[in-house]
Amino acid sequence: MDRLKISKCIECVDFPCEDVNHDHYNLPHIALDPLAVKVVLISEAVPSNPGDDYYAGENAAYAQTTVQAFNQAGVSATTFQDLLDMDFYFTSAVKCGKTGYGIKAVTIRTCSFILEQELNLFPNVQAYLLMGDVAIKAVNYIAKRETGERAVPAGATYKIRGGSFTFRGKPAFPSYLQVGPSFGIEKSKQEMIAEDIARAIALL
To answer: Contact, 134 vs 107, CB < 8 A?
Structure first.
């Protein structure tokens, strides 16, 4: 299949959400073969600084901490491009930058329609990594629209991670956020994130 530029395939039309910064609206500006994608990692929201986003270059904060997380999971990758070449895809559930610590449920639900469009592009995904509460909630909104049921049960991440869950018939792994300040500080979370990534890639 021809390579698709993801940012040309999805969009927010009317920007209804009130608790995010629309000036920091950002979609994945990457061209790829959607049939090749095997693992989709979904994190929380795009960074306030577009230069920190996954696809902003090898020095971008999201790219650097993600490579670190995958290295800790046993993946031999030197650069973020190495991960892309291994058929991993990375995105955020919310496409605008946060204005505060949290994100309202109505915003996550609204943005989940865009995420749904995005995930529809990848028919051969074998596993989903849901990094943090926002990603889990967004996928649950999609799952409830499609099946009437959550993909992942409600509960604290430390209680539900490690369980057996599916989204669109494929394993879904709830975990912690692998980007942002907390990743570099909380070593225990780094270890749990590495375990969850390792479980997902073991399916490939």
So the answer is: no
Residue 16 has pLDDT above 60, yes or no: yes
The Cα–Cα gap between 172 and 190 comes to 19
Residue 192's Cβ-count burial label (10 Å; 0-12, 13-18, 19+) is: middle
Q: Cα torsion for 37, 38, 43, 45, to the nearest 10°?
A: 20
Structure tokens at 49: 């600084």
**4-201 maps to CATH 3.40.470.10:** yes
CB proximity list for 118: less than 8 A, separation 6 or greater: 6, 9, 10, 28, 91
* Token pair in block for residue 30: 């990457």
**pLDDT by residue (tens digit) across 66-92?**
999 999 999 999 999 999 999 999 999
Please state the domain extents for the chain: 4-201
CA pair distance 27, 4, nearest whole angstrom = 13
Q: How much is the pLDDT for 182? A: 65
* CA distances to 110, 190, 201 from 37, in Å: 25, 24, 12
